[in-house]
Design a protein that fits this description.
Shape: elongated
CATH class: Mainly Alpha
Number of domains: 1
Radius of gyration: 20 Å
CATH topology: Non-ribosomal Peptide Synthetase Peptidyl Carrier Protein, Chain A
Structural class: mainly alpha
CATH architecture: Orthogonal Bundle
Order of helices and strands: HHH
Number of strands: 0
Strand content: under 5%
């Protein structure tokens, strides 16, 4: 049983997935910094204020939800552009 477990853990798929998760976590910090420190201030200069957290409907803090949606769209756009750029270089 131990040898089966060891061979399972050392399979290429499991190791590749582990590396991908770790690299993905580190890359997430880069993307979060890019969005928070570069893109959001630029949006703030254009729109006046990129932070919607002050929007409240009764006791519901809808502004935080709007911030999460805006961040998701920006992160998706940044990742899309990076993947497209990497794909063009690979061709």
């Amino acid at each position: 049983m131990w040898s089966e477990f060891k061979s399972f853990l050392l399979r290429g798929d499991v190791l590749a997935l582990a590396v991908a998760v770790i690299i993905g976590g580190a890359f997430q910090k880069i993307i979060d910094s890019f969005v928070g420190d570069v893109i959001s201030p630029i949006l703030g200069m254009i729109t006046g204020n990129p932070d919607f957290s002050e929007i409240v409907l009764g006791q519901v803090k809808i502004g935080n939800f709007i911030n999460a949606i805006v961040n998701f769209v920006i992160v998706g756009l940044v990742l899309f552009m990076l993947v497209k750029a990497a794909g063009k270089k690979a061709e």
